[in-house]
Amino acid sequence: xxxxxxxxxxITRLDSTGDGPRLGVKDIIDVxxxxxTGGSRALERKAQPATADAPCLAGARAANARIVGKTNLxxxxxMPIGTNPWxxxxxxxxxxxxxxxxxxSGSAVAVANDxxxxxxxxxxxxxxxxxxxxxxxxxxxxxxxxxxxxxVWPLAPSLDTIGPMARDIAGLVLGMQLLEPGFTTAKRAxxxxxxxxxxxxxxxxxxxxxxxxxxxFTIVDxxxxxxxxxxxxxxxxxxxxxxxxxxQLYDDDQDGIGEDVAGMLAMxxxxxxxxxxxxxxxxxxxxxxxxxxxxxxxxALPTLPIFPPRLDDVTPxxxxxxxxxxxRHASLFxxxxxxxxxxxxxxxxxxxxxxLQLVGPHNSEELLLATAxxxxxxxxxx
Length: 382
Fold this sequence. Notes:
Elements: E1 10-13, E2 22-26, H1 41-46, H2 58-62, E3 66-71, H3 105-112, E4 118-122, H4 129-135, E5 138-141, E6 162-166, H5 169-179, E7 192-196, H6 202-215, E8 218-222, H7 229-252, H8 259-271, H9 275-292, E9 298-302, H10 319-327, H11 331-336, E10 340-345, E11 354-359, H12 365-379
Parallel strand pairs: 2-3, 2-4, 7-8, 7-9
Antiparallel strand pairs: 1-3, 4-6, 5-6, 5-10, 9-11, 10-11
Helix pairs in contact: 5-12, 6-12, 7-8, 7-9
């Protein structure tokens, strides 16, 4: 049954039968009988009730999961801020003055506020990991292609992934079991971790080091320069594909697209000029990332290089720079196609947690979650 009212965390609230876990579903994923709005007025105006669930929900249905609602998001899943001009802003549970992070903002807030046991988000350039980091929750970006994105509104099809979000790592394991029945974590955690040194806020860097030390890993320092080209590669591919997926929606209904997304679409052709060169560089860069896993089992770095900005500080003039600042540790791994976790870790000199990002080789979700569990047990859940 679809409720007539709407809330900032959910675009559509649902009454769902079942004795399984409570599941929030980002409103780019089709749920049978419910229109998929993508958090966009333009898409909502033309949306019809979905005739079937997206394939990624098959495991959840088999487990009798209770779908509690379609969660809010940054419009069309385009940006990492997490606000929405049409359906309201999901409120950051750590501090209402801060951005909730996006694009899967409603999913992060739903699990943080115990309105869902697991929520599904999409991650094209950090959209699972960034709101998890902003809201002090956990998230998993899955390996590109591991989880079906059929019947999911596309953003950049060569980068789009679906992944679980939860309050803690056990919730991510449950989420993977809903997405992939029979999923189990690895029998042992990683012991050798490559620490990528970055220019993040020193409090965040220290929190990452403290968490890794508490977990007892053997740490190998890794140079950021190996990874840095991934951001330019990602940017060109993202803007080219985002424009291809969404510009017709804007052309047909300009009044139904928010100003920030319209601005991104207007900038897209300039950013996408280098897409052919980026795609040519991608294979070689991915190979250089893959070689890092010959030295270490996993990589570790901050999910966000900064603490979540205040909503009031994200202005039209500062928007692009804010997006760049927030995504620079996340989006390159979408270009790499690798799985990544985000989990909160305590900071010594800030009321806000930092977020540790663990990165593994393709299809290493089992090892990532086993290792994240060890970190959580050793360093505590912030």
